Amino acid sequence: MTDTRGSQPYDAYASGPLPGERRGQKQPAQPYHPPQAYAPPAERTGGGAAGGTGGGTAGGSEQHGVRVPRTGVRTEPRTRKARLRVAKADPWSVMKVSFLLSIALGVCTIVAASVLWMVMDAMGVFSTVGGTISEATDANNGGGFDLQSFLSLPRVLLFTSIIAVIDVVLATALATLGAFIYNLSAGFVGGVELTLAEDE
Known about the structure:
Shape: elongated
Strand order of the largest sheet: 1-2
Strand content: 5-15%
Order of helices and strands: HHHEHHHHE
Helix content: 55-70%
């Protein structure tokens, strides 16, 4: 018994795929691009142009699936504030700061006194006032009171230095005592409250 169908239908699939199979098409590999929240400037321009024909810039951005930030709304920065309370003042630190400040004030006082004396001497104030006082106090040609010798520059600087030293001692002592008194009062009333704010 012979096969009358022949081998032609089977020979057609010998070198090719079967009927249920498809040839796989190779696609070139492409780099991976992660999703971005905002599109580059070029894509934004293109999206706006496309949206102009389809309904404006918002429509173009929606077509590309890109979120565009709103630029028409003005946002004012809020000024942060902090409310603090001075609960205690360190007497040692207060004493050091007051001592240095009082020394600086004493030096400024000495310099100011010397400059003022030189200006008044150049204007002739001591000679004029001294002559008037010597004439008024002259008794039986005794010479009277000599104001220029009494208010000489070394004597003025000496008096000013003594006053500056006393000022340093008193200011330091009073500031330290004030720190102790403040700590005692802060224990009862809570201290001084301060409100700090950022510079705009």
